[in-house]
Write a structure and sequence with these properties.
328 residues, Spore Coat Polysaccharide Biosynthesis Protein SpsA, Chain A, 2 domains, 19% strand, alpha/beta
């Protein structure tokens, strides 16, 4: 008698795009996702100040598209709304100023399927051609795949939420996103890093794939970049303080010491040694402010989220989503 091993059930996919006041670029993003035929849904979580995004998306005739209007604020909150409303096993995320290649959803889902111990998967985030004398585009590119199992390994960097996939039930089991992080929140970035660090502290892996990428159109001038750097380093400081506050003293202190010494303190010190005007001082100031704020904030031990901002279940503004607000 011959027996056949049962094949694992294929993972189903949902795509979540969080947006606020970026209707033109949002349409480009959603069009690029829907360009590939496939059995997946696309949820747009809109926290915008008006109905511009809804109006702009009305021209896209695709039953896979679901528009959700939310009165809540902060990207962490929007991502949690998307996680709870999604029906897929894997939730694939990109930003409203990105463009994805054909087959991107399937490729990200395939990586997640091949890495059953991973809760989070990141792909490369690449810039388009732009004038490098006028500014820059945030990007993340790896030449080889990488599997992270300890938060100390994050000292070499983590991926961007512009190209991210999440194992839905796993992430929801440890609370979803900490709504204290992300644009519009107390710490205005770091939602992607926070979910990664918490996943590893809970025993799951974070996987980087070098085989998949998205295009990021988020150009910033150098002046905008300096402001964003300070904002980001406040969040990094808080991210480093949280494990220590939660009792992970060794790994938390190691990560904090490395990032502060190597990424924040050393660059301006090196400039001084070379008799140049020190640059990057905002990193030191930002990290110090965020680290102090994080140490002063209690952490919920079960979810590893700051207690001051707990995730809330979708309110009345989400009712239309439960009624399957599909575009036809």
């Amino acid at each position: 008698m011959t027996t056949t091993a049962a094949r694992p059930h294929p993972l189903r996919s949902s795509v979540v795009v969080c947006t606020r006041n970026r209707a033109p670029s949002l349409v480009r993003t959603v069009q690029s996702i829907l360009r590939t035929a496939g059995d997946y849904e696309v949820l747009v979580i809109d926290q915008g100040d008006d109905q511009a995004a809804e109006a702009a998306l009305s021209s896209l005739q695709d039953i896979r598209l679901r528009y959700v209007r939310s009165t809540r604020r902060g990207k962490g909150a929007a991502l949690n709304d998307g996680l709870r409303l999604a029906t897929g096993d894997v939730v694939v995320c990109t930003d409203d100023d990105c463009e994805v290649p054909e087959g991107w959803v399937e490729a990200m889902t395939a990586v997640m399927a091949a890495q059953p111990a991973a809760a989070v998967v990141f792909c490369n985030v690449l810039p388009p051609l732009y004038d490098r004398t006028a500014g820059y585009v945030p990007a993340y590119e790896r030449q080889q795949d990488r599997c992270l199992t300890s938060i100390v390994e994050a000292r070499r960097g983590l991926g961007l939420g512009a190209g991210m996939a999440l194992r839905r039930e796993t992430v929801l089991a440890f609370g979803g996103f900490d709504e204290a992080f992300g644009p519009g929140s107390r710490f205005a970035s770091g939602d992607d890093w926070d979910i990664s660090l918490r996943a590893m502290l809970r025993g799951f892996k974070v996987y980087d794939t070098s085989q998949v990428s998205v295009l990021h159109h988020g150009f910033r001038t150098f002046a905008e970049g300096r402001a964003h750097a300070y904002r980001d380093w406040i969040s990094i400081g808080a991210l480093c303080a949280k494990p220590i506050r939660a009792g992970y003293y060794g790994s938390g202190a190691a990560l904090a010491a490395w990032l502060f010494a190597v990424e924040a303190l050393w660059p301006p010190f090196r400039d001084v040694l070379k008799l140049r005007k020190p640059t990057g001082l905002s990193r030191i100031a930002g990290f110090s402010r965020g680290f102090a704020g994080g140490l002063c904030t209690p952490v919920e031990k079960q979810t590893l989220m700051f207690r001051s901002v707990q995730p809330r279940h979708a309110g009345a503004s989400m009712a239309a989503a439960h009624a399957d607000h599909a575009r036809k």
